[in-house]
Amino acid sequence: MPDLKTEYLGLSLKNPLVASSSPLTEDVGALRRMEDAGLAAVVLHSLFEEQISAERGTLEQDLAKGTESFAEALSYFPELDEYVLGGEEYLELIRAAKESVGIPIIGSLNGTTRGGWLDYAKMIEDAGADALELNIYRIPTDPNRSGADVEQGYVDLVKSVRGAIKIPLAIKLGLHFSSIPNMAKRLAEAGANGLVLFNRFYQPDIDLESLEVVSNLVPSTRQELRQRLHWIAVLCGRVEADLALTGGVRTSEDVIKAMMVGARVAMTTCGLLERGIGHATEVISGISAWMEENEYDSVQQMQGSMSQRSVADPASYERANYLKVLRTPHPEFPLA
Length: 336
Ligand SMILES: Cc1cc2nc3c(=O)[nH]c(=O)nc-3n(C[C@H](O)[C@H](O)[C@H](O)COP(=O)(O)O)c2cc1C
Prior knowledge:
The protein has helices at residues 28-37, 56-69, 87-100, 114-126, 147-164, 180-189, 224-235, 252-261, 270-275, 279-293, 299-302, 314-327; strands at residues 6-8, 11-13, 17-19, 41-43, 47-48, 105-110, 131-135, 169-173, 194-197, 205-207, 212-214, 242-246, 265-268. The chain is an alpha/beta fold.
């Protein structure tokens, strides 16, 4: 029987499949079912600072600003009642989960103000979370703010939160940086123990009938996996932080690929939403079966084996790959 154990954020996990943050992880009953299905850890649904009742005034002010300018723009803002759990309920969920579930519970926080990030990080730690994931979702809209300034904001935030708590800290971030490796290195130096790659960028659409902005969530596809595999392969061995892959994971093959490029864990949400929590059991037994068939003794033996760790000049390697992709015949495009 192959050894599926992996280490993530200093936590010993029985296998590399983790439930990422979603409404599924908002209920203790579902967390128990996740544990029974074999998931190795769960990240709770994010606590958004706007959810915290004391801060509600801020969101209401934002909504009011929208009304003054363009009525259409209002549809960009979420309704207050779309935020489900308040701050105290969130902390209660952590306490209840720690009492009734044996697998590690990772809190998730999405703040807006420095005070909000720090206070709630501390409260999530005190409630008993095994680790904290900061879900940083910031879309720069100010043309006068430079990329360097935006990036420094991330680094300062991670430093402050690191200074406020002792539990392991992971950062979930998007991929819109000029240099992902540099950003990853700086975040690790600022105290991030793990990087969760990548947050999806949720873009609204426009309904031409009603002339409304439609902000529905489009489920991920397995195509998204490749981008994540690529960047984890580049970062593996070059950054002092555990790498987690989120986005596009559906099957055991996807998890195996994530391990090969150097991820410590592969996370899943849409797979569980589409196929049910029980799907995790199939994925985990698929990993085991594949390893046995391909004579791998342990997940750790696979981790990073297909990363760019041993490539002396990754930039040239990337360039060569680019040329190869474009210059190879494309039978799928008969007109090319
Ligand atoms: C309905 C839904 C709600 C989500 N809520 C959160 C959230 O609160 N915080 C967060 O960091 N990610 C959230 N995510 C993103 C997922 O954690 C995950 O990163 C993303 O769906 C990509 O992974 P997947 O392809 O396995 O679904 C949510 C995703 C879905 C589908």
